[in-house]
Amino acid sequence: MDRFKLIKEVGDGTFGSVWRAINKQNGEVVAVKKMKRKYYSFEECMSLREVKSLRRMNHPNIVKLKEVIRENDILYFIMEYMECNLYQLMKDRVKPFAESDVRNWCFQIFQALAYMHQRGYFHRDLKPENLLVSKDVLKLADFGLAREVSSAPPYTEYVSTRWYRAPEVLLQSSAYDSAVDMWAMGAIMAELLTLHPLFPGTSEADEILKICNVIGCPDEQTWPQGLSLAEAMKYQFPQIRGNQLSEVMKSASSEAVDLISSLCSWDPCKRPKAAEVLQHAFFKDCTYVPAAVRPKAAGPPKTPPGVGARGVSGHIARRYSTGALSTSKPAANISIKPSSLSKIGNIYYLFS
Ligand SMILES: Nc1ncnc2c1ncn2[C@@H]1O[C@H](COP(=O)(O)OP(=O)(O)OP(=O)(O)O)[C@@H](O)[C@H]1O
């Protein structure tokens, strides 16, 4: 790690602290995620989902993992550096973002999701803190919970932050899929448009209540499997009709409300796929390509609303507790090609 100069801590998550750092050899600004627990072998590091899934992702809207370094039993991820996250952009804002900004951001995230879902992965922990922003580019980060769709259920370990957690996960379904990411995106889109979380539950039961308050409780027509899941855990849905989503988001366009309603469908099968969302009327005429990934001739990238010096300062307030739902199960076994693995002294490096 001598090659890197750590400048400032920019994030503190459950599993790691993230630093802005400089690669002393080439002056490049990078993000260094220092994992909190110790790793006693490189094989153990290589079996981490974050490593396995991020190494396979190559998309302009997915944060790049440049190197993995284990030194003195401490694991470091060297990633491309992003200025701030969407939660930081929202938290001190009073005036809602323009719908065109939300459209451009979400278009990029749905492109990343379409890419990863088509390759058989889903993220499982989408939340504003994991959507990173630099200028007008948005990237998906934190693949600590990413799953291979083909890996066998049951998925029983802790999954996703409560406010963005899909109802099938709240009701302890053990066979959910990429539709959980679509639910989270509905909640995130609504939050970006109103600056208020759509379902800010204070517990798992309150989370379901908050969902019922907005979209009404499910029934035999809207989600028969949900009723069975609830019955299996002896849970009774509150009998509530729910506010219209358009009432909760008074200034949003009808296209935005329509998209969020379909993303936040009780039944995961009724939620659109990421690739379908890109065709939705909300994104009509949206062929948005962020300046930073456009060909050189394009002008300088515009700074998104709210990103200033403050965008990177301060620690991220934890908005919700992240307790485990139940015990964990070993990760699915995927082989890692050792071709890019090198050992120098006692330090192991993995170059992407
Ligand atoms: N590449 C990056 N560039 C800049 N900041 C980053 C980067 N990656 C992460 N961060 C910041 O660090 C925070 C924590 O990172 P991350 O979510 O990867 O950690 P974690 O321990 O897995 O967190 P969680 O508790 O959400 O699981 C992010 O919310 C973000 O603000």
From TrEMBL:
The keyword Transmembrane helix does not apply. Residues 4-283 form the Protein kinase domain. Belongs to the protein kinase superfamily. CMGC Ser/Thr protein kinase family. CDC2/CDKX subfamily. Keywords: ATP-binding, Kinase, Nucleotide-binding, Phosphoprotein, Serine/threonine-protein kinase, Transferase. It catalyses: [DNA-directed RNA polymerase] + ATP = phospho-[DNA-directed RNA polymerase] + ADP + H(+); L-seryl-[protein] + ATP = O-phospho-L-seryl-[protein] + ADP + H(+); L-threonyl-[protein] + ATP = O-phospho-L-threonyl-[protein] + ADP + H(+). The lineage of its organism: Eukaryota, Viridiplantae, Streptophyta, Embryophyta, Tracheophyta. SMART domains: S_TKc. The keyword Mitochondrion does not apply. SUPFAM superfamilies: Protein kinase-like (PK-like). CDD domains: STKc_MAK_like. GO terms for molecular function: ATP binding; cyclin-dependent protein serine/threonine kinase activity; RNA polymerase II CTD heptapeptide repeat kinase activity. This is Protein kinase domain-containing protein. PANTHER family: MITOGEN-ACTIVATED PROTEIN KINASE. ATP binds at residue 34.
